[in-house]
Amino acid sequence: MSVDASNALLSWYSVDKRSLPWRVAEGEWPDAYRVWLSEVMLQQTTVAAVRPYFEKFTSLWPGVERLAVTDDADVMAAWAGLGYYARARNLLACARTVVAHHGGEFPDTEAELMKLPGIGRYTAAAIAAIAFGRRAVVVDGNVERVVSRLFAVEEPLPAARATLYALTDTITPDRRCGDFAQAMMDLGATVCTPRVPKCLLCPLADQCAARAGREPERYPVKAAKTARPRREGVAYWLEHEGEVLLVRRPASGLLGGMLALPTCGWSGEAAPPPVAAQWQDGGSVEHVFTHFALKLRILRAQAEKRPEGIWWPIERLEEAGLPTVFAKAAVRGAAE
Ligand code: SF4
């Protein structure tokens, strides 16, 4: 990209950038904690979904030291509903590492950032560029789309990722690197959209090979999708005197460390029902995870005695921070 095009993009960004709660006014440096928190939350999650969680987390834990001393269960509960729960576990591990080994200050290079839990190449580059002004190649899904169009890349995703990274490297300037990265993200989110890109409003239109070829929507080229596998399982809704039995899932694995209904069958476990009881059909719910689609059948029963376990008042179940699939199952379980 020519210097003129890079300047055109930065000028466009100065006027048309999105107003986001983790951004600061031009000329100010954002707090690395807020940049890190927003980037972790935005992994595979939309800006609209992240906004209220970002506001909640920064109001509960305004800095990394406060977050680092918080109980795991409180953070997991606050994260509930945002999905990809390994991020919340890594968030805490990262906050504690920053406090224990870096004096509460995030390191300012990609290489050091990538040694922290939950920080991969993209997140390290984004923090280094946005919070510390380092030259870093920042490629998220929006940037992939813009670059694949600018250069009319015919290689299909996901194999094209290395090519798109290398091409982004060729157009990343040495100065205002954080603004450049965010400008490319914003351009992808608001102008170079997946369908019907607004090429007439685009500051890079003169440079764009896909526009010159008159079919920008054809990019990025994608490999044919394979069908998502389906799994089935059972969730148990066991009530006793206005409370329901919950379990804490194992720390590692899908939905690790989260409170949940007892289950069997869907993630490889073959657990029996939590007690012998007159189990009745409570219907089923569907949920789509990244790698599979789940049909979860609900079995309901009243416990005559109260077995050991985590018993939660049904009236206050929304405070338990159940992940979305169990929140859906609880609606069915509590329905009768
Ligand atoms: S000209 Fe159109 S296709 Fe090319 S980068 Fe701009 S919005 Fe995207």
Can you walk through the features of this model?
The chain is α+β, with helices and mostly antiparallel strands and 336 residues long. The chain has two domains: 3-218, Endonuclease III, domain 1; 230-334, Alpha-Beta Complex (Nucleoside Triphosphate Pyrophosphohydrolase), CATH 3.90.79. The chain has 13 helices and seven strands. The chain has helices spanning 3-16, 32-42, 47-60, 64-68, 72-79, 86-102, 110-113, 121-132, 141-150, 161-171, 177-190, 209-212, 324-333; strands at residues 230-240, 243-248, 259-260, 263-264, 280-288, 293-302, 310-313. Strands 1, 2, 3, 4, 5, 6 and 7 form a seven-stranded mixed sheet that branches. The longest helix is centred in the N-terminal third of the chain and has 17 residues, at 86-102. It is globular and about 75 Å long. Bound molecules: iron/sulfur cluster.
Residue ranges: pLDDT <50 for 5 or more in a row?
Answer: none
- Distance separating the two termini: 62 Å
Q: Work out the strand percent.
A: 5-15%
Order of helices and strands: HHHHHHHHHHHHEEEEEEEH
Whole-number average pLDDT?
92
Q: Based on DSSP secondary structure assignment, what is the total number of beta strands?
A: 7
Number of domains: 2
Task: Briefly characterize the structure.
This protein is α+β, with helices and mostly antiparallel strands.
Outline the fold blueprint.
Layout: H1 3-16, H2 32-42, H3 47-60, H4 64-68, H5 72-79, H6 86-102, H7 110-113, H8 121-132, H9 141-150, H10 161-171, H11 177-190, H12 209-212, E1 230-240, E2 243-248, E3 259-260, E4 263-264, E5 280-288, E6 293-302, E7 310-313, H13 324-333
Parallel strand pairs: 1-6
Antiparallel strand pairs: 1-2, 1-4, 2-3, 2-7, 5-6
Helix pairs in contact: 1-11, 2-3, 2-8, 8-11, 9-10, 9-11
Iron/sulfur cluster is lined by residues 146, 149-150, 191-192, 197-199, 202, 204-205, 208, 210-211, 216.
